[in-house]
Amino acid sequence: MNRPADSGNRADTRLTTAPGPGEDRRPTGKLTLGQLRERVAAGRIDTVLLAVPDLQGRLKGKRYGAQHFLDRIATGSADMCAYVLATDVDMTPADGFALTSWATGYQDLAVTPAIETLRLTPWMPRCALVLGDAVDHNATPVEVAPRQMLGRQLTRLARHGLHVKAGLETEFVLYQGTYEQAAERGYQGLRPLTVENLDYALDHSPAADRFLRRLQTALAGAGLPVEAVKTEGAPGQVEVTFPYGGALAACDGHLAFKHAVRAIGSRAGLAPTFMAAPETGVGSGLHLHISLWKDSTSVISNPDGTLSTLAQHAIAGLLDTLPQLGVLYAPNINSYKRYAPGSFAPTTASWGYDNRTCAIRVVGHGEAQRLEIRVAGADANPYLALAAAVAAINHGIERGLKPGPAEASDAYREGATPLPRTLKQAQVAFRHSSIAREAFSADVVEHYAHLAHLELDHHHRTVTDAERRRWLARA
To answer: Which of 85, 180, 246, 445 could form a disulfide with 9 if both were Cys (CB 3.0 to 4.6 A apart)?
Structure first.
C-alpha cells in the first residue's frame, strides 16, 4: 500500500463518513442530497437503492423510485422486515433469535438513510445507492446490526483519543459461465477464467483484461478508486486493494465493491466468488490494514521507527482476543478450510515484522507503518471482521497488554496459540468469551453464536459429494 493519505474520518465516533463542517471532500461518484435532487430533476437518476448490510455482509433492501425516495425517505426512514438481520445465508426464517422470530410475528424495523454513503452505481445505470442504519421504532439503534457494531467499537476507541484508518485488501475467484449455469451443473467442473498461476503477472487474457478494466472504471465512477489490482496465485484469482480511509467508509465501500464485482461479472458471463476456500488448496483472504491515529498523526511507530507503546498494546490485544472472535471473521464451515500451514493464511495467533506466516503482520515505514490483520477470509462481513479487530485493540489498550517477541521465522510451527480450526470451536470460544460479552454485549454474542449454530446444523444434516466419493464404495 502507498503512504496513507490524511483523509477520511477524524474520530469515527458516529455512524458517519461525512467530512467536517465547511468541508466537502467527496470523491467523484459520491453524492450530496442536493446533487441527487439535481440529477433526478434532470432525468439522470430514476432509482435509489436503500440497503442495510446484513449479517453475511450483503446489501439487502429495496429499489425506490428516485422522486419517492427524495419526498418520503431521504430525511426519514423506511420499513424492512427485521429478519434481514436475523437469518442465515439462505434467508430462511428461523427461531432462536431475540431480535425477531415466529413468536414475535416477524415485525418490521426502520432503516434511516446514511446520506453520507450516497453514491452512484455505474454498473447499474441511472441508479444511486445509499446505505441505512437499522433502528427500532423508538429510534434506538439495533445493536446486532453489523454497521452499528463497528460504530460502537470505534466510539470506544475514540475515548482514548484515537481513530482508525483502514485499507481493505480482498481476493476473489472468477469462474467461466454464469451462476445459473454453475447451479445447473451442480457446481461441478467449474473452470476458472485463467488456468495458471498469474501472481503479479501483467500478461492477461482479453477476457480478464476486459473484466478488470470495467471493474476499475465502475469503481472509480462510484467514488471507490482502487489502489491496485493484480491477478493472484490461484487460477482465476484476483486481488483488489483500496486506499486508506475512515474505517466505516472502508466497509461501506467494500459492500458496494462486491456488488459491482457480481454485477459486472454476470454481464460478462462470469461467476465471481468470495468464498474463503472455493476449491481444495485455494484460499481467498480479506486482509485488514489498520493504523491508529491521534488527530492527523499516526501513532503506530515512534520517531525512531520502533513500534509505539500503543501499537504494542494493540498487537497484544489482538493476540489475546482474536482466537475468541472467530465467529465474526470466519463465519461459516468453509471459512476454516482456508487455514492451513504453508497457505499464507494464518493458523496461529502470532505477530511479526513483514512475516506473511503470522496472523498480524507489521508492515510499512513511518506514517505508512500499519498492522495487516490476516485472519479474515474473503467471505467475512467486513464490518464484523473490523469490529472484532478494533474490539481486540481496545482490549489491549485498556489493559496495557504487551506482546511477546515478534515471530522471525515460520509461525506455522507448533507452540503459538492456535486459531480456531472449525466453526464449532469458534462458536464455543465466542459464546463463552467474557471479552466478547464485554465488548459487544451478551445479546450480540448470543445472536451471532446462534447464527453459527444455524450454519453448523445445516451442514450436519447435509450429505456432500465428498462423502460419497470417499465412502460410497467403501462403507
So the answer is: 246
Query: What does the alpha-carbon distance between residue 156 and residue 465 come to, in Å, rounded to a whole number?
Result: 46
CATH number of the domain at 33-155, out of 3.40.50.2000, 3.40.50.1400, 3.40.50.720, 3.10.20.70? Answer: 3.10.20.70
Determine contact, residues 172/412, Cβ cutoff 8 Å: no
State how far the alpha carbon of 357 is from the alpha carbons of 39, 181, 235, 278, 371, in Å.
49, 37, 22, 21, 14
CATH architecture of the region 156-470: 2-Layer Sandwich (3.30)
pTM of the model: 0.92
Cell of 151: 460504530
Q: Tell me the pLDDT tens digit for each residue of 178-237.
A: 999 999 999 999 999 998 999 999 999 999 999 999 999 999 999 999 999 999 999 999
Closest CA to 289 of 215, 382, 223: 382
Q: Torsion angle, CA of 245/249/252/254, rounded to 10 degrees?
A: 0
Q: What is the pLDDT of residues 374-388, one digit of tens each?
A: 999 999 999 999 999
Q: Cβ neighbours of residue 253 under 8 Å, at least 6 residues apart?
A: 168, 223, 224, 242, 245
Phi, psi (rounded to 5 degrees) for 290: -125, 135
| HSE-up of residue 382 (Cα within 13 Å, Cβ side) | 28
